[in-house]
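Final report, Chapter 2: Outcomes

The project's central promise was a pipeline that accepts a single protein chain and returns its three-dimensional structure in a standardized token representation, suitable for archiving and comparison. That pipeline is now operational. To close this chapter, we reproduce one record exactly as it appears in the project archive, with the input sequence first and the structure output second.
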Amino acid sequence: MLRDFVEMLFSMRLPVFGLGLIFVGVASLAARELDDSLLAALAGLGGFVTLARLFVLELYRRARPVLGVTALARWEQRYAAGNYAFALLLGVLNARVLTYHYPLLHLITVSLVFSFGAGIVSRISVRPRICVASLLLATVPTIAALGWHAGAAHETVLHGELFAIEAILVLMITSLSLQTVAHLYSSSVEHHTARHDMAQLAKHDPLTGLANRLLLRERLQASRAARGKDRLAVHFIDLDGFKAINDNQGHPAGDAVLVEVARRLASMLRAEDTVARLGGDEFVVIQGSIDHADQAEMLARRIIRNLSVPYSIDGKTLGLSASIGIALSPDAGDDLERLLGCADAALYRAKAAGKGRAAFCTEEDSAQAELHPPGAVMRA
């Protein structure tokens, strides 16, 4: 979610450029008209800050994808610094311009604050700390300057009253904007949380939380892309005796066993390995970066040993074992379905030989996989 929110911050190239250009133009015209060196300096600073912000946006684009919370936080801080600087320049511009009685110029500079506020509320409310601080940096000096100008003596009818009303108007809109930020942030969090949850459901088994076939395929492709031709092993695991538990103890007990099996499998694996549940009592483990088939055999025997330890479910001790078929890649291919089919055929031989065993995919198994998709072979 953090990455999505930071991405939104750095997708604002056109608004940053457009508002910066207008700021420089207005400040430059006002400096020339009023012969004010401070306004000229503000124009120069506005140009510098705008270019710096655009430069940071471009650096982020080149650095994408940015991974890790720490790196994302650093980029967020860089964005915030530029936003704060520009907001402060807007506030100072209004504070300076309102020392003069130039209503048309006041209209333009205060409108710049409104435009900036509306923009950041709609664009960066996903990062409320940045949004609120930027909004206050621009509006507080403007409100104070409007109030000061309202108290300055001038012969124009209703001069003080109208400027006081404008100060109150900016204050009210600022308050409403702060409430809007809170609402938009809450809505954004709910939306992104829901989207994340849906993505999780699409790629994970709802009972065990393990990867499903879709995520398993993605992990296999990612492993192959990252490690080139390094060997990996696909372990197709089937639980021996699970049907009896389901039939005799009921589905809740069966589900509890599956959850415990998933926990045990996950606890045995390395970070680069993947465990998935394909459905029923079928699990798959992708063991990455192996040098020899012996490593795959050692893991398979460890899995069989750990899954054969009795299960304590609702005060009852339940027992089962596991049989495993192993397909090595690239020996048996690179495609997930082919590897699963080959491992499935080897699994059938392992179960036929007495269960609680592991078997490697052979050429005959590979041929069998061509005829039968994974899971098509009937098992006891």
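Archive annotation: The first strand starts at residue 231 and ends at 240.
This record, like all others produced under the grant, will remain available to the consortium after the project formally closes.
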